């Protein structure tokens, strides 16, 4: 009976110790992010601002590019029909009522009908450059953040290490407490961890946006070529 009581008490003690350790770790995790002194706190705030800005840029550009990629499959068929029937005004109205990069390119080309084909081609190319600029607006900021995030985190780590060793140098005691040193290093390394997380998120988001933008640009090029071919068809 006494053995059972002792085993039960040991089990309860072990559970209590585990709970205390878990509570301590949870408290440390909550505090460790902003426990690196003033410089560390400033670096962490900058990193979190980068993270917020990167997520916002990615979602905003993703929705804009997705909207630009939507196009009626019968759009070029209707344009072809209107032009073959000589209804240029109807073709312009169709382009104006369709909100897409392709429709704006075709509208620019239709407005130049009657001029040399080379002038029409140049007008479409210029309109295409403007549409590509709109699609890629602020996307380069993600590339910047993907590089600046880890660098900022590394800066925080270096500053934290310098400050930790400075405190050790200024200590009046000849003995170095390893727990204090380990805590300082751990705090400093947190900036690198979060900086890398921000860099990875921004890098993946940037490459995804570039990929879907290339698809929209390809769609614009294909429809522009179809339009020019339509103008070259014999009447």
From TrEMBL:
It is a multi-pass membrane protein. It is found in: Cell membrane; Membrane. One of its GO terms (biological process) is protein import. The lineage of its organism: Bacteria, Pseudomonadati, Bacteroidota, Flavobacteriia, Flavobacteriales. It comes from the Bacteria. PANTHER family: PROTEIN TOLQ, TOLQ-RELATED. GO terms for cellular component: plasma membrane. Residues 99-221 form the MotA/TolQ/ExbB proton channel domain. The chain crosses the membrane at residues 32-59, 139-165, 185-206. This is Outer membrane transport energization protein ExbB. Keywords: Cell membrane, Membrane, Protein transport, Transmembrane, Transmembrane helix, Transport. Belongs to the exbB/tolQ family. Its main location: membrane.
